[in-house]
Specification:
By secondary structure, the chain is an all-alpha fold. It has 9 helices and 2 strands. The protein has one domain (56-225, 238-262). Strand 1 and strand 2 (83-84) form a beta hairpin. Helix 1 (24-45) packs across helix 7 (196-228), helix 3 (99-122) runs antiparallel to helix 4 (127-146) and helix 4 (127-146) runs parallel beside helix 6 (178-191).
Amino acid sequence: MSVTSEPVEPVEPVEPGEPGEPSGTEGASETGEAKSVDTAVRAEHGPPPIVGRVTEHDQARDALVVLGLTALAVVASTVTADGVVPLHVDGDLIAHPTVATLGGCLGVAAVTPALVRIDVAQRRLPNVLVGVVAVAWVASIVLSLAQGDVVPAVRSLGFVVVTALAGVAVALAGGMGMGDVKLGAVLTGLVSPWGGIAALGLWGLAGASGVAWALIRTVRFRLRRAQSRVESTSVVADVPFGPCLLGAYWAVVVGRPVLAALVDGSTPS
C-alpha cells in the first residue's frame, strides 16, 4: 500500500459481522484469487451445467425421443419368443397377452428424456417423474391380475420390495441416491415378470455403464488438469445413475424375446 501526502478522509471501521466491500489492493487480491479458483474449476470439470431452463430445442428433442421410445415399446411388446402377437383393436385389448408390458413401457417412455436431462444436470430424479413410472408399474400389475396372470404380478411385487430394501441399505452406506433406489426398484418390477434373468440383466447393464461412465470422466478430468497445469486434490463428481438405469431398461426391453427364450416355461406378459 502506497503512502501519499494528500489528506485522507477517515474511514469508518467495519464491525465484525457487518457486510463490507473490499477495496484497493486487498479487494483486487481477493477478486484475483476468486477468478483463479473459478478458472481452475472450469479447467477441471468444464463449465457448470445450465439448469432450470428448457429451450424449444430441448422440448422438440424430448418429443422425438418419446415418440421413438413409444414406437420401440409397441414393437417390443408385440414380439415374444413364440413370434409376433399383433394388437387387435377390434378385440378385447385388456385381454391381450402383451398389454401389461406395453403399459409399463409407455409410462417409462413418457419420462425418460426428462429424467435423463435433469439427472445429468442436477444429480436428482424428481419424485413426480419417478411417480409416473411407478403408476405405469402399478397399471401393469393390475392388467396382469385382470388377465389371471397372478405369478408374474406376485413376482414383480416381490422383486420391487427386495430391490427397494437392498437399495436403501446401499443408499445409507453412501453408494446410491434415494432417487436411484426408487427408480431402480420400479424398473426392476417392470422387467421381473420376464424372469429373474431380466432383473439381473437390468442391474448388470446399469452397473457396467455406470463404471464405464466414471472411468471416462476420470480420464477426462486428469487430461484437463494436466493441460491446465493446475494442482488440485478435488475428485471427479459423482456419476448420475438414473440414465444408466433407464438405458439398461430399454436394452432389456429390446432383448425381451431373447430373455423369454432363455427362461424355461415362461412367456412374457
